[in-house]
Structures are given as C-alpha cells and as structure tokens.
Amino acid sequence: MFYRSRLQASAALASLTLLAGCGLLPDSGSETEQRISVGTTSSPSTLDPAAAWDGSWELMRNVFQTLVSFPTGSTSPEPDAAEECGFTDSSSMAYRCTLRPGLKFSNGDKIDAETVKYSIDRIKTIKVKGGPAGLLGSLDRVETKGDDEVIFHLAKADATFPFILATPAMSIVPPGEYPADRIRDDGKVTGSGPYVLDSYEQGKRAELTKNPGYKGFADRKNSAVTIRYFDDSEPMVEALKSKEIDATYRGLTAEEVIGLEDNKKDNNGLQIVESVGADIRFLVFNPKDPAAGKLAVRQAVAQLVNRDALVAKVYRGTAEPLYSMVPKGIAGHATSFFDTYGDPDVAKARELLSEAGITAPVKMTFWYTTDRYGSSTATEFAELKRQLEASGLFRITLRSAPWKSFQEGFNKGAYPVFGRGWFPDFPDPDNFVAPFVGPDSVTGTPYLSNEITRELLPSSRKESDRGAVSDQFKRAQDILVKDVRLLPLWQGKLYVAAGEDIGGGERALDPQTVMQMWELYRKTSW
To answer: SS3 of 73, please?
Structure first.
C-alpha cells in the first residue's frame, strides 16, 4: 500500500523523454564485454558513504549496495542486498529486512545482519557535519536477529524510511576496512555493488569493472565504465564530440544543450535525452552575518530577484522559475514566494529596508561553487549581482571556490550568502524541506523552526499516502517565506548526451537522478 501511493506521487520524475533520433534506444543484440566512458562536472567530495550527502552518490550507487534501491523503471524502493523488506506494523515504527543469501564484499568478506547494523550505526556515530546522519533522524536503534534479519526501530513514525534506506549514503561497508568512529581516508572503496572501483584519481577519473561476485537486481549491459571528471563543461563537450568519451551527465550549460539539439548533423549524430528534473537551486542566508542576519535585508533580496530574467538569460529554457523549495511535480508544490512578493519591485524593496532603518546600500558577499553545477553558475551569479545592484540598494561582491573547499567553507559558517543546489534523495516533499531545517541542516547553517521540525514533519510522516501531505508542506513553505532563510531560484531539467552508438541513456537515471552506469552499452549495429 505504501509503495503504491509513492508510485502515484512521483511517477512524473521517472519519465525520460527521448528528444532526438534513435541512437539511445535499447538494442537486444548489444554486447556486454565492453567499456563505456562517461563525463561529468560533478566529482565526488568523498568516497565514504558515511560522509556523503551530495553528488558523491553518483559513484557510490555503482560500487556499493543498499538494502533497497530503485530498479530501472521503478519509483519505489525494492530489495537489492535484501531479499525482502517491509514495515512490521501499521504505524510505520519498525522496518524489517531479510538479506539475500551468500552476499560478499569485493574483498571476500561476508555480509550479514551485523554488517548492515555496523554500516548504519557508524553514520550516526561519526555524524559528519552536513553529512547523511541527518537522514536518520527518525531512527532509534538497529536490531539483528540471526545472520540475515535486520530490524530498524524508529523513534517516531516515518513512512519515508524505506526511501532513506535506498539512498547511497546507506551503503553497506565491511567493518574491517571502514572504522566505526571516523571516515575512511585511504582513497579506496570496498563494496558489493555492480562494479569494483579499480582505480581512482581525485578530480580526474574513476575506473570501474564488473564485480564478479555481485548479487542484486542490476542487469549490467557493459563490462567496465570509466568516469572522467571535468572542471568545466566545454572540454567535456569537446571530448564527447571527438569520441574521447561516450556520454555526459551533469554540467552541460544551456547553450551546450541547445547547440547539441540544434546541430545534430554537425555533431556526429550525438543524441540528447531529457528527464523531468526535480533538481533545484537556491540561496542560503547566514543569520550570523551582520547584513544577511537582518530579516529586512533578506526580504529586500527576495523582493528584487527576477527569476524570469535569470532563467531566460542564463538557462534559455533548460530551467524554469521556482517560487517554493518544493518543485513542480512533487506533492505540496506551491508558489509561496510569488504569492508574497509578486513581481520584482524596487520601491517595495526600498520600503522594506527603510522601515528597518537601513538607508545606505547594503554590502554583501555572495559565494558559489565553480565545479559542482556546471559553468553556467558563474553567469547566474553575475546576473543576480546585476539585478540587485541595478536597484541601487545593494553592493554585491562575488566569490567562488571549487566544491571541496566551498563545502568546507559553508559547513564552517564562513559565507554570508551562498548558492546551493539540491538533487533529491527521493521524490517526496519531505526531502525538499527536512534536510534544510533543524540544527544539522545540510546547508551547514542551523535553521531552527519548531513548528516545522516538531509538528509538520512528524505529522506528515505518519501518512503512507504521500499524496495526502500537501497541507503540511504548504504550511511549511509559508514559514520558509516568512523567514527568508532560503530563497528558491529555479528548478532544472537533466540531460544525458551520448554518441549515436550508445544505448540505454533513457533508462540510466533513477528517481534520485543518479546515473545507473550499468544501463549503458555500445550497440553492435546501427
């Protein structure tokens, strides 16, 4: 019953539409003994699942296993390392899984119930700042029965818990190689997923080969994958055109997407697959900053930002304005910021500042990352600076940093205002509100809201029918608008670009928008 309602609520996110040609259609005659090369601008910030709540999941989904995951075409978690899973009660307070028999890690170590318990417990023990421990807020304790049974006892009802277990952060790791109280830092990976990580060069490439001992649902259509990490999308697209790589994922600019679509004949038959995106971009305001900590300043920024102009100038139809933290296509979506602020209005922004006794132009520093969301990010922040300074009410300084140091900076609270992106852990409104509120906000900036964390989220998590939680999340968004600690900007679409001889692109993205590399293959005929 729970899974069926999830399917209805999130079906739109699983839809992938082939935009051009037939080069990405499945081919029953494809060979499995082949290497596929994929490029991305999103390199891992960590190789340890206990520290990962970002694009590192891309690699982890392919080398680790979770108890439940998303088989191709499914928008509900189904057993992977587990043989079966389900709630043991009607109140969503206990979730039990039975492991597949004979599971082993790539190093030969056995996977049993104690291994699973160890893997989950260490996430909570280590509790990396901005890490995935925040996903386990409803978990009380993990119990094992025999070698193959794991029971998750929840401190409070949480109908989203199976979706949390399906995130790559909950990957199963061998106790002998992953310390219980600290992050593994030797640059190596030991998992039980579809692939083995043969070698890894940070920021450069990851070499994956098929795991001969893998037991799970992934039907691997290739024997090996090379993931190449690019600092910028331009050389990545050039590598695709020159056939140095077979496909790209994450980081294409709007101009590049449009160029690939409009110039098919000149691009050696390259194909584009578009997915309905649930990824969002937003600004985070640090309340400890002298300027950003003032409500009137945050309200004035919200009153001035022109999302239509931002999307039109920078993203050219590959994104759309967003007026709530919950995007279109997800239950609970609203237009709360537009309802409150309407169209951009300099006079209203000036009045907000004047009423707070602020008359001089407000000086603020905006930070963004250079290599996580694609090279359009710099253009986006230049446009935000232009809009705010054109009002005469602000003087904006722009600063940027590569993701690794950028992440360290915002987790230390070093940035007054900074841009963040969010790719869903799972397709539910809970995942667009809960991670950003509370003392352990994934933004690195604590955001205390008792009504959201103590009333609205607990109430919504009792509902197994996720389409029935709209009221709670619309109220949560009213609170977010009042505080203006987070300012949604836009939601995007996701694109996979690939050569004409590559199949499987339309099946490669799961509901978490993570690429399942095993779906890609090289066609034997064209």
So the answer is: coil
Q: Are residues 74 and 141 in the same domain?
A: yes
Q: Which helix (H) or strand (E) holds 140?
A: strand 139-145
Specify the 3-state DSSP secondary structure of 215.
coil
- What are the residues whose beta carbons fall under 8 Å from the beta carbon of 115, sequence distance 6 or more? 109, 172, 173, 174, 175
pLDDT at position 155 is 94
CB atoms within 10 A of CB 243: 12
The stretch 50-65 carries a mean pLDDT of 93
pLDDT in tens, 359-374: 999 999 999 999 888 7
8 in a structural domain:
no
Q: What are phi and psi of 437, to 5 degrees?
A: -120, 160
Mean pLDDT of 463-481: 87
Query: What residue type is assigned to position 25 of the chain?
Result: L
Residue 257 lies in a domain: no
pLDDT in tens, 335-344: 999 999 999 9
Residue 58: closest CA among 382, 279, 385, 242:
279
In this structure, the answer to whether residues 191 and 327 fall within a common structural domain is no
Q: What is the pLDDT of residues 405-436, one digit of tens each?
A: 999 999 999 999 999 999 888 878 999 999 89
Q: Please report, for the domain that includes residue 87, its CATH number.
A: 3.40.190.10
Ramachandran region of residue 20, left (φ > 0), alpha (ψ -120 to 50) or beta? beta
Cα(266)–Cα(435) distance, rounded to whole angstroms?
Answer: 44
Distance, CA of 442 to CA of 492 (rounded, Å): 20
CA distance 174 to 107: 9
pTM: 0.75
Question: What tokens were used for 268?
Answer: 């050696």
Single-letter code of the amino acid located at 245: I
- Average pLDDT estimate for 164-193: 96
